[in-house]
Amino acid sequence: MKIQLFLEAVQALAPSSSEFEFQSMTKEITDIKVSIDLLEKERDFYFAKLRDVEVLCQTPELKNLPMSVAIKKILYAADENKDSLAEAQEIVSELMSAEQAGLSDDS
């Protein structure tokens, strides 16, 4: 709303030779607003997906499974913690090794 008021004030003060500039800036602002709306929708979409994964990983039947623990490690990692993926992969790798060892013991 403030942008619109600003643009109207500029248009009122601007000489007619600046009409093209004004229209160009108005189009650019409109394009930016459309881009922001699209980015917000995309953000909300992926946030909802991550939230669904988080809720699934917190269910009593799954919350202590190594895969759920690994997923939560990634979800809850601080941005500065670049090792969260490696730690999660290690958890899954240990699980896979333990399962393979258990299968070979059963043979």
UniProtKB/TrEMBL annotation:
Tagged with keyword Ion transport: no
Organism listed in the record: Salvia divinorum
Cell cycle as UniProt keyword: no
Domain of life: Eukaryota
Organism taxonomic ancestry: Eukaryota, Viridiplantae, Streptophyta, Embryophyta, Tracheophyta
GO CC terms, sorted: microtubule
Protein name: Microtubule-associated protein RP/EB member 1B
Alphabetical list of PANTHER family matching this protein: MICROTUBULE-ASSOCIATED PROTEIN RP/EB FAMILY MEMBER
Subcellular location: Cytoplasm, Cytoskeleton
UniProt gene name: EB1B
